Automatic annotation (TrEMBL):
<dbReference type="GO" id="GO:0004476">
    <property type="term" value="F:mannose-6-phosphate isomerase activity"/>
</dbReference>
<feature type="domain" description="Phosphomannose isomerase type I catalytic">
    <location>
        <begin position="4"/>
        <end position="147"/>
    </location>
</feature>
<dbReference type="InterPro" id="IPR011051">
    <property type="entry name" value="RmlC_Cupin_sf"/>
</dbReference>
<dbReference type="InterPro" id="IPR014710">
    <property type="entry name" value="RmlC-like_jellyroll"/>
</dbReference>
<protein>
    <recommendedName>
        <fullName>mannose-6-phosphate isomerase</fullName>
        <ecNumber>5.3.1.8</ecNumber>
    </recommendedName>
</protein>
<keyword id="KW-0479">Metal-binding</keyword>
<dbReference type="InterPro" id="IPR046457">
    <property type="entry name" value="PMI_typeI_cat"/>
</dbReference>
<keyword id="KW-0413">Isomerase</keyword>
<dbReference type="Pfam" id="PF20511">
    <property type="entry name" value="PMI_typeI_cat"/>
</dbReference>
<dbReference type="InterPro" id="IPR001250">
    <property type="entry name" value="Man6P_Isoase-1"/>
</dbReference>
<keyword id="KW-0862">Zinc</keyword>
<comment type="similarity">
    <text>Belongs to the mannose-6-phosphate isomerase type 1 family.</text>
</comment>
<dbReference type="InterPro" id="IPR018050">
    <property type="entry name" value="Pmannose_isomerase-type1_CS"/>
</dbReference>
<feature type="region of interest" description="Disordered">
    <location>
        <begin position="338"/>
        <end position="372"/>
    </location>
</feature>
<dbReference type="InterPro" id="IPR016305">
    <property type="entry name" value="Mannose-6-P_Isomerase"/>
</dbReference>
Amino acid sequence: MSMLALDGHLQHYSWGSTTALPQFLGRESDGRAWAEVWFGAHPLAPATAPGGRRLDDVIAADPARMLGADVGRAFGDRLPYLLKVIAPERPLSLQVHPTREHAAESFAAENAAGLALDSPLRTYRDANHKPEMLIALTRFTALCGFRTPRRAAVILEGLGTDLTDRLHRLLVDNPTAHGMRAAFRTLVSTSMRPTAQAVGEVVEACRARTRAGTSPSPRIDRFVSLLAEDHPGDPGVVAALLLNPVTLDAGEAMYVPAGALHAYIHGMGLEVMAASDNVLRAGLTPKKVDADEVLQCVSVTAAPPLRVAPERQSATSIAYYAPVDDFELALTELPGTAESGESMASGAPEATGASGATGAPEGSGDEPVRIPGSGPRIVLGLEGEMTLSTGSGTHALAAGQAVFVPAAEGTLRAHGHGRFAQASVP
C-alpha cells in the first residue's frame, strides 16, 4: 500500500464561513456554514481513504507499516496528531484544553458513569491532551492568554460600570495570579456570573470610550464589541478585557498549550494538534459550558501569546516546531511557483522569505525535490498542482486535496508548481 488520498471530515458549525472552505476545497457552496475540515484519524471524525475506509481503521489494520516502530512505541497504534483547516467567520467559544493527566482521569470517570461518547452531558471525548498550533492562511484574529494583572487593571479602569469597578478592585488589591483567578471566577462561575444587563453596560462603556478616543486598548475594545454582536449578554465578552488580543498575518503561527484560555475570532488557518477533541468551554457558545472544569484546568499566569517562528529545513521547506512530541508542521513551496503567476491562495509564506532571503528557490518545477520528514505524514495541497512520489508510486496533489503517506514509504519527493503543508511526528 503506497500513499492514500484522503477525504477530510467536514464540520458545519454556526461560526464557520459559507465560502472560505468551499473555495479552498474546490466545491460548491451550499449556503451552510463550513467551519472546519479534519484530516486525521480521530475516531469521532476520521478522514476517509479510497473505498470509504476510515483512516483510523486503515491504520489499525497495519500499524507497523502505517505508523512505523518509533511512533508505535511512543503512541501505540494511533496517529498522534490531527490536521485541520479552520475558517471562522464569527467568534469561536472561549475555551481551554486539559493536560493529558487530567483528560485521562476525567475521561475514565465519565466512562465509569456510563456516559455515551456522544452524550450532551459528556465533557471529555477521549483521554488525550490537546495542545495545538495555528498557522494563519489569511489575516487571523484571536484572544489568547491572560494579561498581567496590572495591565488588565489599566484596561478596566475608567469604564465606570459596577462590574468593571469590581474587577478593577480585585486586580489592584491583589495584582497576582490569585487576583486574576478571582476576577475570572467572578465572570464565569455559576454562583457569581453577571447578568446580561451588567455585561451590556460594559460593552456600551467600551464603545463609548472608543468613540471618545480615550481607550487604552482600542483593539480589545473593538473585540469586545464584536463578541457582543454574536453573544450579547455573555460574560465571556467581558472576560476578553483580561486577555491578550492577537493578530496573525498569513504565515505567522501561534502555539496554544494546555491551560491557555483562548478564542479564535476571524480568519482562515491551518491547525495541527494532538489527536483529541477535548474542549472545555467558558462562554461565547450555545454548546455546553462547564465553568467548574475550566477553572480547574485554566492557567491564569500572565503570558504573551506564544508565537512560533519557522525554521528553514531546506531550500524549499520551512518547519514550525511546537514544544510537544505529538506533532510538527512544515510548509513547502516548489521551485518556480513564485514565477508561475498563480495567486497565493493559501497565504502561506514564500519558501525563502521566512529565512530572510528573497526570491524563489533555484531549480525547475519539473525536477523532483526531496521533502524533509519521515514517519506517518499527511500532506495537504495549498496552491497549484504537484506530483508526490515515493519508492512505490506517485500521487497527484492540488489545492484542497490531502494524502496520507505511511511511514514505510520512506523518502517523499515532489515536483510541479505549488505549495503544500505536511503534518508529521517530530
